[in-house]
Amino acid sequence: MKLNILILCTSLILSFNSWADIYIVTQKNAPIEHISQQDLTAIYLKKKVYWDNSELILPINLSAQSPLREQLSQIIFKRSTRAMGSYWDKMSFKGISPPLIQASEQAALLFIQRIPNSIGYTSTKPDNSLLKVLLKLETPK
Amino acid sequence: MKRHHSLVVRLAGLSTLIIMLTVLVLSAVVYYGFQTKIKQQVQQNLSAIAQAEANKIASIIEFERVNLFSWRTSAVMMDTIVDDLDKRIQTQLINLKKNYQLAGDLYVFNQQEKLIASSTPNLLGQGLPENWQLKNQDYQFIPAHNIKFANHAEPIAAFVINLAQTGKPQQGTLVLTQPWQELWQHLNKNTDYQFAFYHHNPHHLDLITEQGIVHQVVTKEFTQQKTWSVNQQTYLGALSKSQAIGEQFVLQIAAFISENKANEPQIELLKQLNIAACLVILPIMLIAIALSHRFIAPIKTLTNTIHQIEISNDLSLSLTVKGKDEVADLANAFNRMMGNLSQSFYEHESISKEVEYLNQNLEHKVKARTHELATALDQLKTTQLQLVQSEKMTSLGQLVAGVAHEINNPIGAIYANVQPLKDYVDDLQEALALAQTLLKDDALNQFESLLTDIDYDFLQADLTNLLTSQQQAADRIKKIVLSLRNFSRLDQGDIKSVQLEEGIDSTLQILHHEYKGRIKLEKDYQLNQIVECYASELNQVFMNILANAIQAIPEKGHICVSTYLEKQAQQSWAVIKIADDGAGIPDDVKSRIFEPFFTTKEIGKGTGLGLSISYGIIEKHKGTLSVDSIANQGTTFIIHLPLSLTTS
User: How far is A7 from chain B (nearest CA, A)?
Assistant: First the structure.
């Protein structure tokens, strides 16, 4: 029994480690077509809060337990999600809350679809005409 | 002495009455003062409680409002945008209901006013009720209302808030429902107060009862009334200030208390005042009684002292003064009065005694004077009698003296002739004897015959005897005459210096025939002094005493006459003591023997003047005449005479 559990956990870890690509998504009519990783980092650190047309950027995050969020954190922050907690603690003191969280990629995509100027990410390229991909972060396989 | 209305009782009663009246008046004042205050306080309490409960309800409503404002800021609420795709909102609502122990439910509607999340299952997809729709409002409290949603049968209140956050996209609506009745459960149940929600339009009360909310219609003037009649019971009530909560709701709470309950403090106050009055009155009454006794005690002492004075008539009694109060002043005044009274009484008594003494003295004086007068009268009578007697004696003396003088000459001649007669008879006898010798024979015979015839021998012998007897008789006559002369002393009426024994002997001589042969006379003359006296008067004294002595001896006896000189206190007294062993004088008679006209002799045999006159004569000589006598043993008269009348 113990052996079976160990094997299952190991396979899960291996599956997580086998990261997929990350697609940065926004509404189709958003005033941007492409975004740099640097801007993406600034948006998710709430250091960049407005689009060029002065519209408020509304970044959407997945829950802290999400492997995709962990993957994104490692790419754009070079840190784990857990390590970013202290950053947001400090930012909370400045009155800046972290990005909104949606529990699932589907909910995140629906939120982006319905709320203008919102931006999120997904592990699969969305097949939705109302959305567009601004950036594809490729991750090592 | 028992009194029905003693000063103690009256004083204690009066004090108690005053205290009772005072306490009752004070109690009444306190009661009515506090009654007003209590009513005011009850009213204030009602107002305060109503306000407090209103504030409590308002704070509950406010609490829910704040909760809603807090909850809508939750990031999860942003899931309304995705129609709660991940059921995070629903989970949140369930958790909130559980964690906040909400009596009602939470509902989240999306922007399209469709229910996307609910704390109650199986409701998703329902539309937002019209009552809950916000019309350009961010928040709205909707009071009691019935709604056909989620099977709410009972009236509920709804807290509706827009989920739009500043800087966030429009999301939807968050609704919190609460059973209307549950809201009132927060009102204080553990008090004597009842509460109602007051509705202005239309005017009615929603009474909160154990059975639920009871609708009660009231008039508009209801708020102005001090007492409210609800459910046929009279209440005191007060309303809280009206508070507008939201746009649709004005909160105003009425607090009630039944009039009986409200009056309980007054009744309790009345009871406590009664107890306090009793607690005050009883000790004060006891103190009043004790003080009355204490205050009255000096008066009782005063009264007792007065009674003692009444009983004993002792005015020297006084009160013991204690303290310096009015009673002490009274006691002092009483003591002073008693002192003055005592002094006056003693003065009065002394005056009375003096008067009594004077009266007695007067009586005595009167008696004495009467006695003196009687004595004087007696003396006068005595003197008169004495004068008469004296006159008689004088006459008798003169008579005796005359007789004695007349007899004295012939008897003197007889006495003087007896001796010559004897001599002559002797001579004749010698002559006859010679003749007899000389005669012879016839002559002799004749002579002898003659002698025989004449019994010469007898004659001779008898002649001698006759002569001797005659001489003795003459001698005796001479002595008698001398005695009569001595007795009468007509020639010696003035003071004379004599030997008393002579007078005694003369008297005895006169009385000789009375006692001779019967009474043995003993003489013991040792005075042998010349005594200055009224000799004839003294002889009367001797006569009286000796005559009495002789008469006191019925048959044979003794009379002893003694004289001697007695010296007393530089004065010499001639004492004549005449004692007999006769019948003696009884005691009852002894004290009266010197009284005039007192006699034990038969009527006509005694004048009763003898010893009285004798007493007077001895007094005249400034001497004393006393008597010692024992009945059946004898009597002794003792005469003390001064030797000289001129010096005594």
Answer: 30
